[in-house]
Design goal:
By secondary structure, the protein is an alpha/beta fold. The protein has a single domain, classed as 3-Layer(aba) Sandwich (Lysozyme-like), CATH 3.40.80. The protein is about 15% helix and about 20% strand. It is built from 4 helices and 12 strands; from the N terminus they run E-E-E-E-E-H-E-E-E-E-E-E-H-E-H-H. The strands form 4 sheets. Strands 3-7-6-11-5-12 form a 6-stranded mixed β-sheet. Strands 1-2 form a two-stranded antiparallel sheet. A two-stranded antiparallel sheet has the order 4-8. It starts with 12 loop residues before the first strand and ends in a 19-residue tail after the last helix.
Length: about 200
């Protein structure tokens, strides 16, 4: 997880695009603040409609192509313009929407270890799933491989859930996410992961 002096020629990357991912560019992104270190990975979960897997709706949402009339639930999110850098489907497929050098719109109002506006310094990864429920083994394989790719290119020093950076507002990925399994696969030290006393509602400004 050491920071590379020159991240311009890291194998597996073309700029901020991971070559092993399927690319589906989103218009929902912006520039990071100048000099901002990309040092945090944020894990989310999403399914559209909630609990329904395998369809094109998440990809359509992140690329502003979702048909708001297609399902009653979509009225609740009509007009949202959001994105994540990556999306991992239940079968392990990896899709990238935003150049990892750029700022995706995934975290919202957030704070992690004293730093607010986590979109500025994080990479957002969405897992296809429902908060509180379990994820597929192949998703952990894809996620751990992706985290390793990110740590090879950026000075990553922490990984947290949306629930940890926006406590009281968000609950994903929830109790069904196996943090211990991810840590075992990555071999990263404890301080890289959320600690039991982190993520209390008082953290969020």
């Amino acid at each position: 997880m050491a920071m590379l002096v020159d991240a311009t020629n890291v194998p597996g990357w073309t700029g901020g695009w991971l070559t092993s991912a399927r690319h589906s560019p989103s218009p929902n992104f912006g520039s990071r603040p100048p000099g901002e270190a990309i040092d945090l990975i944020v894990v989310h979960s999403i399914s559209l409609p909630p609990g329904v897997y395998g369809g094109p709706e998440v990809e359509q949402l992140f690329t502003n192509q979702l048909d708001w009339e297609a399902h009653p639930y979509f009225e609740q999110i009509r007009g949202m313009e959001v994105s994540s850098h990556f999306f991992i489907r239940r079968d392990g497929e990896l899709i990238q929407f935003v150049d990892a050098d750029a700022r995706a719109w995934h975290a919202g109002a957030s704070c992690w270890r004293g730093r607010s506006n986590c979109n500025d310094h994080s990479v957002g990864i969405e897992l296809e799933g429902l908060e509180g429920e379990r994820f597929e083994a192949v998703q952990y394989i894809t996620l751990s491989t992706l985290c390793q790719h990110l740590a090879a290119r950026y000075p990553i020093n922490a990984i947290a859930g949306h629930e940890h950076i926006a406590p009281g507002r968000k609950q994903d990925p929830g109790a069904g996410f196996d943090w211990a399994a991810l840590q075992q696969r990555l071999g990263w030290p404890d301080p890289c992961f959320p600690q039991p006393d982190e993520g209390a509602p008082t953290q969020l400004a």
